[in-house]
Amino acid sequence: MSGTHLTLNLVEGSVSFSFSPEAARELKSTLDQLMHSLKAVSAKTASGSGKPTPQSPMEYRYTGEVFLEIFCNPNIWPTPFAAKVLLTIRDLNIRLTTEAELTRVIEDVNQYLERG
């Protein structure tokens, strides 16, 4: 099954794989929730009004031609713009685990959706 390819730009290089528009919309929604959590932590820290309420880690999984997992703990990043996510992309022959900047992943997913 051939679908449209999503390209994620990494700190060094990029990775491209088959990804469905439905999965991209689901991923965008998950990333939006993560941004909300990161902003909650950042606002509490910036206001100095005590310790921020711990936010749940974000974990997204997609299984298609490849398996994609994106993980982020919003409690360890000072701002949403500093946040990075851990990406794992694998199929039967290869496994790639690396970090990517959250803002870049969001931008890549938005560009993918705009093309569709």
Description:
The protein is of the alpha+beta class. The chain is 35% helix and 31% strand. The chain has a four-stranded antiparallel sheet with strand order 3-4-5-6. Helix 1 packs antiparallel against helix 2. The protein is elongated, with a radius of gyration of 15 Å. The two termini are 17 Å apart. The mean pLDDT is 91.
Radius of gyration: 15 Å
N-end to C-end Cα span: 17 Å
Count all strands and give the number: 6
> Spans of 5+ residues with little confidence (pLDDT < 50)?
none
Tell me the structural class. Answer: alpha+beta
**Overall pLDDT metric:** 91
User: Helix count?
Assistant: 2
Please tell me what the overall shape is. Answer: elongated
The profile of the biggest β sheet is: 4 strands, antiparallel
- Strand arrangement across the biggest beta sheet: 3-4-5-6
Estimated share of beta-strand residues: 25-35%
Q: Report the helical percentage.
A: 25-40%
Q: Order of SSEs, N→C?
A: EEHEEEEH
